[in-house]
Design a protein that fits this description.
Radius of gyration: 35 Å
Oligomer: single chain
Order of helices and strands: HHHHHEEHH
């Protein structure tokens, strides 16, 4: 092809057809430019396809994370609501008089006492941020929704930190200082590092008066009850955040599903 064009140029120059040669030269330059533009367009199209493939793969991984997060978040929402409910039952219970009353009272405050922190399932999003690849997500609505999800995580972390300080001051310290903590557990033969739950018949009657006395002390202690009120409010507050986050995750999953279907 190159020899063919060279032959034409030489013939035009030999025949002194300069004007035709000039037109030919311009035409040849245009062909070269058009060829370069076509090559760039093909290269850009290939790069766009590659980026789209990477984007779709990230979106699918985000979807997998969010499906697990939805289950994780629902579990924590229920976990927080149960703690708020147990707190309410403690605040509205009658003075423990019998050992059965003490058992019910203890069940409730131990349910409030158990502590778990929410751990987000956002590995793909952290990878996007850490690698600087968040720009690969072209859908701004999805991108903003992912950033908004991080705001939910920040609210939960802040709420848990605040509540933990109140638990230690108003609940844990008061209970440890003035009662037999975990009195209904067998601490003589722990199974797999955790003691078994005792039945009332397993607790000697000689210990009943002390357990009743301790439960009544907690029942009357204003600091402890203030801690229970704070636990009720804080757990309810966090449960509401988890519930709102669940709705946000559902919307985000719907957006991702529609975007993946385009590919």
């Amino acid at each position: 092809m190159i020899k063919f064009f060279r032959h034409i140029r030489q013939r035009l120059l030999t025949e002194n057809k300069f004007s035709k040669y000039l037109l030919y030269a311009i035409g040849e330059i245009l062909l070269v430019v058009i060829g370069i533009l076509i090559a760039l367009q093909i290269n850009n199209a290939n790069e766009a396809r590659k980026e789209r493939a990477i984007e779709v793969n990230y979106l699918k991984n985000l979807r997998a994370d969010l499906l697990l997060e939805e289950e994780n978040n629902n579990g924590f929402s229920q976990y927080r609501f149960e703690k708020a409910r147990s707190s309410t039952q403690l605040l509205n219970s009658a003075l423990p008089i019998t050992i059965e009353d003490v058992e019910r009272y203890t069940d409730n405050y131990e349910n409030v006492f158990i502590w778990q922190s929410f751990v987000p399932n956002n590995n793909t999003f952290k990878e996007l941020l850490g690698s600087g690849n968040l720009s690969l997500i072209k859908n701004d609505t999805i991108k903003n929704a992912l950033l908004e999800l991080e705001n939910f995580y920040a609210q939960i972390t802040g709420g848990e930190y605040h509540m933990r300080r109140e638990y230690e001051k108003f609940l844990y310290d008061r209970s440890v200082e003035h009662t037999r903590a975990l009195a209904f557990f067998d601490d003589t033969s722990p199974q797999y590092g955790f003691p078994e739950r005792l039945n009332l018949m397993d607790i000697p009657e000689s210990e009943h008066p002390k357990l009743i006395e301790d439960a009544q002390w907690l029942y009357r202690d204003q600091t402890f009850n203030n801690g229970i009120r704070l636990a009720m409010m804080n757990n309810g507050f966090l449960a509401d955040i988890h519930r709102n986050m669940d709705k946000h995750i559902e919307r985000l999953l719907d957006l991702i599903e529609k975007e993946v279907d385009k590919s």
